[in-house]
Amino acid sequence: MPRSPSAPRRRGARVGVHYNSSKQGAERTAERVREAGGEAFVVQADISSWDAIRGLADEAFERAGALDVLVNNVGDVASDQMSWRELTQESLDRVIDVDVKGTLLMTHEFGSRMLEQGHGSIVNIGSTVVVRGSARAPQYAAAKYGLLGITKSYAAAFAPTVRVNTFAPGFMETGATLERADWRSGRREKLIAQTPLGTIPPPEAVAGTALFLATEDASHITGAYMLADGGFNMVGA
User: Fold this and answer.
1) What average pLDDT score do residues 72-93 get?
2) Nearest Cα to 69, choosing from 112, 123, 8, 150?
3) Which 8-state DSSP code applies to residue 83?
4) Residue 115 neighbours by CB under 8 Å, 6+ apart
5) Which residue, 20, 104, 118, 199, is most buried by CB atoms nearer than 10 A?
6) Known catalytic membership, residue 140
7) In this predicted model, what pLDDT tens digit does every residue of 5-32 receive, in sequence order?
8) Candidate list 140, 145, 154, 225, residue with the active-site label
9) DSSP assignment of the chain, as one string?
């Protein structure tokens, strides 16, 4: 029987939803968790700040008691940038601060606490952009490539107690993607034509891969980079 895309949310989890400025979006996500039968709370922090991340980790562990899984899903994709020629110092700094420094420090702070509690799994959300690069936003491709080094480094440092992996979804139809000028001017159709499975899915269609890496089903996987892109970036032998 085909699995419903919502099935990964039906695991009875207690979920902490982080946000920086979009409290309304975080509350909507938390409500979806509650509707699926789980518990949820929201926490705020600017993850470009190490002090803020420390405070976030302290609050999350205090409210949850223990933390089994951390999913680092925050990233700046420089969505307003349509060409490498539009690169600015501000955009470069922001992407590196959030995508690289933020993910590294989230892994560092939460992972160290997971070590103290004796278990845990960290899933860093990467991107298939590391395979082909990005002529649109090279700083984004560079940042996501940096996640591989973060993942492998902390996977080695935290083993065998805490596993750390990277999950790389391909193109997805998110609210932000649907609003991009290039998406509305033919890029979607071009990408579908180049994708063997023939679809650009919503996020929930690929969420199960991240869930797999987070659970004991993946207990012998750490330091890995796992793709879910409909075959778009098939690698030859």
Assistant:
1) 87
2) 123
3) S
4) 158, 161, 162
5) 104
6) yes
7) 344 445 567 899 999 988 998 999 999 8
8) 140
9) -PPPTTGGG-S--EEEEEESS-HHHHHHHHHHHHHTT-EEEEEE--TT-HHHHHHHHHHHHHHHSS-SEEEE------TT--SGGG--HHHHHHHIIIIIIIHHHHHHHHHHHHHHHT-EEEEEE--THHHH--SS-HHHHHHHHHHHHHHHHHHHHHTTTEEEEEEEE-----HHHHH-HHIIIIIHHHHHHH-TT-----GGGTHHHHHHHHSGGGTT--S-EEEESTTTT----
pLDDT digits 0-9 by tens, 168-196: 998 888 777 787 777 788 888 988 888 89
pTM: 0.87
155: which 2 tokens? Answer: 């996977």
Token output for 146? 């940096």
Separation between Cα atoms, residue 170 and residue 233, nearest integer Å: 9
